[in-house]
């Protein structure tokens, strides 16, 4: 009986050792898998949406809604530092969106290259940034209301604009879809993407003077214009058509 008890105890100890080894092996594999998954997806997504402070909510919402409903993953790049950014709807309501990336992100250009499409959203904040830039180069008189609206962001207006122009150039040169709505097609014009190309945008003194300054004059009076890999939209009223056009080009590729 004593010998059987000893063998039983030894057997139980061996089983416990085996079970412990298997447990740590499984946990190790799981952690390794999770780590690998994080590394492989951190710079990858289907669509990268660019938001400036006080972006137009309806334009973003339609893009997010329609693309997400059709299985596309959306990452938000904010043209500001911080974890979230504020948008304004056409009634003056405020809406906050979380930032996946921002201008301080590491390997930002690598992030841009690894998305299938880059979408620039317009709005009053970007309009004011463009107004500040247009006044700097002598195309218009500065609207001091823009300085009041942007507040602290006014100090970084040209930095944020230049960053957006670089993003547009990188996305297009990488063979990706580039889309912009409202005043945002002006960024594409500054980047040289609209030269000899039909496009649409929100028409105002600032945007029309800037696109002309950058030799982008083929402006069409249409809600949305698709020209190869470049998609442009006129404004909030065209947001749904704009989002559906992005979806159409994405699925065709």
Number of strands: 10
Total count of domains: 2
Largest sheet: 7 strands, mixed
Structural class: alpha/beta
List SSEs in N-to-C order: HEEHEEEEHEHHHEHHEEH
Overall residue-averaged pLDDT value: 86
State the helix count.
9
At the fold tier of CATH, the topology name of the largest domain is Rossmann fold
Terminal Cα separation, in Å? 75 Å
Brief rundown of the structure:
With 253 residues, this protein is an alpha/beta fold. The radius of gyration is 25 Å and the shape is globular.
Question: What this model shows, in words?
Answer:
The structure is a single chain. Helix content is 49%, strand content 18%. It is α/β, with parallel strands linked by helices and 253 residues long. It has a seven-stranded mixed sheet, sandwiched between helices. A three-stranded mixed sheet has the order 2-4-5. A hairpin with a 2-residue loop joins strand 9 (224-227) and strand 10 (230-233). Helix 2 (57-69) packs parallel to helix 9, helix 4 packs across helix 6 and helix 4 crosses helix 8. Residues 6-44 have low confidence and may be disordered.
